[in-house]
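INTERNAL AUDIT FORM
Audit reference: QA-55
Scope: verify that the stored structure record matches its stored sequence.
Auditor: D.O.
Record contents follow.
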Amino acid sequence: MEQKPVRPQSFTGVVVKTAMKDTATVRVDRYVKNAKYKKYFVRSKTYLAHDPGNTAAVGDRVTIVAVRPVSKRKRFALKK
């Protein structure tokens, strides 16, 4: 029985805030279909991502990946 390599969870989103030191707030959008009306709509969620050196700017499109907890709410880090 072969084991497949485990890839960490990752999302693509937009940086909406960079006010904190070494942290970026990233909004991740996803399309959801309503079961009754069959209409698609956008659901958003924000994640705090570790950004060493504050390299990201507001409006940048970034990829975040799951890492070990950096602080109470930060469980992701910027990949690019």
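Auditor finding: record pair retrieved intact. The first strand starts at residue 10 and ends at 17.
Action required: none
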